[in-house]
Amino acid sequence: MNVNVLLFDRFETLDAMGPVEMLARPADYSVGFFSLDGGIVTSFQNVPVMTKPVSDMDRTGALLLPGGWGVRDIDHDQEFLSTLKGLCDDAAWVMSVCNGSVLLGACGALDGRKATSNKKLFQDALDSSDAVEWVEQARWVVDGKFYTASGVSAGIDMALGFLNDRLGREVAEEAATATEYLWNDDPTDDPFCKFQFT
Amino acid sequence: MNVNVLLFDRFETLDAMGPVEMLARPADYSVGFFSLDGGIVTSFQNVPVMTKPVSDMDRTGALLLPGGWGVRDIDHDQEFLSTLKGLCDDAAWVMSVCNGSVLLGACGALDGRKATSNKKLFQDALDSSDAVEWVEQARWVVDGKFYTASGVSAGIDMALGFLNDRLGREVAEEAATATEYLWNDDPTDDPFCKFQFT
Questions:
Q1: How confident is the model at residue A196 (pLDDT cuts 50, 70, 90)?
Q2: In this structure, how many other beta carbons lie within 10 angstroms of the beta carbon of residue A92?
Q3: What are the backbone dihedrals phi and psi of residue B163, each rounded to the nearest 5 degrees, phi first?
Q4: DSSP secondary-structure letter at A52?
Q5: Cα–Cα distances in Å, from A161 out to A26, A101, A136, A141, A148?
Q6: Do the Cβ atoms of B180 and A152 come within 8 Å?
Q7: What's the Cα-to-Cα distance from A117 to each of A141, A159, B74, B159, rounded to whole Å?
Q8: Is it the case that residue B144 has pLDDT exceeding 70?
Q9: pTM of the model
Q10: Distances in Å between the alpha carbon of A80 and those of A84, A132, B197?
Q11: By the CB < 8 Å criterion, does B24 face chain A?
Q12: Mean pLDDT of B127-131
């Protein structure tokens, strides 16, 4: 399966790289990095990642969308949002981390769906779309082909949940053990919900 | 403080990017990516990162060394190891993740020090140097200016430990909360030690 990671300037590093660590493990999963026009895209933490243009993407498989402060630069960018909506329509699976779901909400991909987002920026999610059922207390939410994670590190747990759902519990647990990661495996257990709106 | 991340082909993504997520948070910490000759360096999970050559590095501050399967390509490379030894001598702090400590052992930087490494590849650490006191049961180990973490995800916990030691508990906890990360904050609590040599 293709795992197509869509980057934009000032994305949050771990939002993308945490899930990538886990999703690259199955032998038939292949990770690639893309941006609207290709070239170097730099995260908020100053990680410069080489990307291919979206026009080069094989749109089958899974789309992975990080969040980050850069979301606020593009959450009203119609070129980005319409491209994103097309990618979501074509993908078999769509995953977002943190306030990446704000972009999914803004482009209309989540209309009529349940979804979650970063707990400290939850108002941004609520503001992005009133056609989405935003779930405040969730480590991650699955609705159809859409997986949305809470803030940053929650993306790792969601990615392991995705492996669990596609390939079984053993594969997910092996990925966690191999990376010495203590998997928070209950999507409804959200220890950070209490920090919301602080 | 500079956080100079030294990359090599087939490094493990989360070994580098987990700590980077945390170490980039303090306003006066600045992350940069380097490799022996500069240019694109690609992780084992297929993340292409643009690096500067080591010759461009301001060697003050902290050096961060990931591990990964690529370690086995360079753990007898005298050019790499002598460069690494020089970087360790000049750095105020040296952090390694996973089997990155095999390279620190092989270059002699850890002589007379305590250190740890990935639990599934622990024999590689033992083989790299008998002048190091290798600690099997540890999430991470601190000895002088050297911080060595166990496998992959343990690097995130170590990085938070580094922030705790330099800037105080509140800064470390704020970094964990902001990234919705459940910090395993006890360096002696190693739930993955039991998987060693399996």
A1: low
A2: 12
A3: -60, -40
A4: E
A5: 14, 17, 19, 10, 11
A6: yes
A7: 9, 15, 41, 25
A8: yes
A9: 0.96
A10: 6, 20, 48
A11: yes
A12: 96
Contact between A50 and B48 using a beta-carbon 8 Å cutoff: yes
Question: Is A28 within 8 Å of chain B by CB?
Answer: no
Q: Is B184 on the interface with A (CB under 8 A)?
A: yes
A56 interfacial to chain B (CB closer than 8 Å) = no
Q: Which architecture, in CATH terms, is B2-196?
A: 3-Layer(aba) Sandwich (3.40)
CB contact under 8 A, B13 and A30: no
Shortest alpha-carbon distance between residue A35 and chain B (Å)? 13
Tokens of B46: 């297929």
Could you give the CA distance from residue B119 to residue B131 in angstroms, rounded to a whole number?
19
Q: Is the CB of B30 less than 8 angstroms away from the CB of A46?
A: yes
Question: pLDDT band at residue A195, thresholds of 50, 70 and 90?
Answer: low
Cα–Cα distances (Å) from B132 to A89, A157, B68, B89, B117, in that order, read: 55, 35, 20, 17, 12
The ipTM (two decimal places) reads: 0.95
Report chain B residues whose CB lies below 8 A from the CB of A154.
Answer: 180
Chain B (65-104) residues lying within 8 Å, Cβ to Cβ, of chain A: none
The SS3 call for residue A3 is strand
CB–CB of A82/A74 below 8 Å?
no
A137 interfacial to chain B (CB closer than 8 Å): no
At which residue do the structure tokens 């399967």 appear?
A: B69
